[in-house]
Queue: 2 jobs
Job 1
Amino acid sequence: MKDVFGRLSKGPHPELHRLLYAPAFDHDVREVLPLLVRINAAHVVMLEQCGILDAAEAAALLRANDAIAADPPAAPESSRGLYAVFEAELISRCGPIAGGSVHTARSRNDINATVARLRVRACLLRVAGDLLALQSALIERAAEHRASLMPGFTHLQPAQPTTFGHYLLGVAAEFDRTASRLLDVDGRMDECPMGACAGFGTSLPIRPHLVADLLGFARPVPSALDAVASRDFVPEFLSIAALAGMTLTRLATDLQSWASPAWGFLGWPDELVSTSSIMPQKRNAFVLESLRGRAAGAAGGWVSAMVGMKNTPFANGIEVSSDVVEHAPRAAADTSTALQLMTLLMRHVTVDAGRLEAAAGSGDITATALADALVRSAGVAFRAAHEAVAGLVTADVDR
């Protein structure tokens, strides 16, 4: 395959190909090619509608597009990446006129920006779906345990009476805001970069709105430069995935504490716990530890993305256009796994209502209610009521 563009008279140096292009090729065939053929099909249809390609040329290109999608090209010995191979395949199959015209009014810049949006939107929807499934499980358990009395905790100490259902609804409320943030990001990402070319548009009479519609976007990105220079939606998605992970780890920490023999509030069947290789009595809630580890991945991806984008020019560039985007699928996979693990645990959790209620009967957790009663029935100032009840508790402890 001849891999020469513009002023270049040679293909990439063998070491450059080995270190940079070759490792990325298989990944791009798997992750990028399915999106590239979608983008190419939409672009070809638009060019035909605008009279830039005739119907026969467009039909040949679309047939070649389908053939490449069905039988992806193998990695050549030397190339400048997937797009170079893709375009060479189109020229080989459709001839230099049709194949050489397909790149009219587009650049790898707006193609890559569109690929990035499609990939991150898929990540976003994956996490959102798993988050909604967990919320459903939390709400189901909350309804089941709306009257399961237990002590509420502050600073890891029994504080006031509550129910297990009340606790679960509180966690679900935080997840609800996370889901809302994901939907907000998706709305801002609902713009297609195609037509921006290298960030400066084109003088050719194209119809970016048609390409946007064919690819499932609401509209084109209004600014051509913003379309190819920006990947701010990547750290935005990662930050929200990190928030989901943070809430997951806090929930996991409470559940693991309450599953310990010290409390014995809840547990799981044997299929969802492990044991020790040396201590035969152990029933370890190891899944909670595993999901805490997975839930941290998005936070690491967010930090890496922010550092990777810092001090880069506001234009298309590899650090921003390609490298930063790769954090999103990894973070989505980790977050999705953590959410699914927690959903599995919540659907199979067993709750010892007797232990919960017994714990609620100790620790003087009705002391605040007594102080409130003094305020309500006797008109005592709250601080005076608070001190009086504290004295009763102290006397009872010292007795």
Note: The chain is about 65% helix and 5% strand.
Job 2
Amino acid sequence: MLAQLNVMKILLPLLLLTLVTFTGKTQIISSFNWNANPVTKSAVGPDAISVYATATSAPNGTNGNGLNAGPDRQNINLVLPGSNFNVSGIDISIDFRREESEADFYTRSNFVFGMAGGKLRASFPLVNGAGFTAIASGNIRDVANDHLFHSYRFRYDQNMGTAVISVDGTVVYTYNGTAGTALYWTGAGNVTVGANADGAASSITIFDNLLVQAIPAAAVLPLKLVSFTAAPKGSYATINWSTTQEVDVSGFVIERSIDGTNFYPVKTVKAVNSFNSTNKYHSTDSTPLKPYGYYRLKMLDLDGSYTYSTIKKVDISAADITVSCFPNPSTDYVNLRITSDKAATYTYTVSSLDGKAVLSATTRLNSGAQLISIDLTRTNIKGILLVQLHNASDNTGQTFKIVKQ
């Protein structure tokens, strides 16, 4: 089994590269799995120029071997040729196990993504005329000191001017800037992975699965998006937008997300295709995510090209019922405690992060405090799951993130 996992670990970046070639949505610049020595050897993209002498491929990565700083208290300093990373938008993900208080995951001149003083942080330079403006996240949150691997991701989309940082798939930081603003790399030099990261001389594997992707420029459609709003209205979310210069526009897709990163379509609206007038659109999401969700508009051309609006967050007022979810994390059962003044019919759905439903059931509950117990042993999926509870009586719902161990 371990041999099979290691083979998949080697092939995954290549499969991703093939996928990217056909979708055109992203382009892999660099990928390292550190499954074998020398650790300067990449899975995809250019090999590293240098690394500290004791850095080595070692067991106990996320799925086989990973990158170990070695017994010396010296930083890993894996250096990559910077000219390959001059991109307008970037998506960086890496698995990291904390053994110290200082560890930078990915640095390049004014760009830093990593940990300082045990806190997750990032700074990134954006083009501003002939120079740049440095955007700093500040200390976002404590980096888990549980000696377990966690996935850290930074994504800057130049098309929307937005940055998102997530931990294990959960967004912990967002930046909303000006659409069309690129990252600034003039004179930036090389990339360093593992600056200030020495593993506290513990000889423990601390890095795994580095993936760096470029975000291409979005297709430019003839239409002009004049406005786009998403706001709560009672227990619903209302989405409004207006356009001009519509020509050969196929339609609009309203997309929704629980974390501001992974979006899924909820409704498609046909375009008016009037070039010289202002076209106004309205739609309602009757089953919004609670307590909040994210919305964006995907604008489709007849030739298959598309572009996105900015992202809007919608906070929905709490439902008339009180719902709690426990225990979390769990290995076998998770419970939904529902307190309501009225009897109602509820449907729960447990799904993976990619939206695939793995468990579902409907039950009728009386008023007062009631309990729904969900048997997680009925699915083999582990990690982060979404539990969605829908009240069929008033068409409201709530969503919880749980961890199955």
Note: Residues 20 and 197 are 31 Å apart (CA to CA).
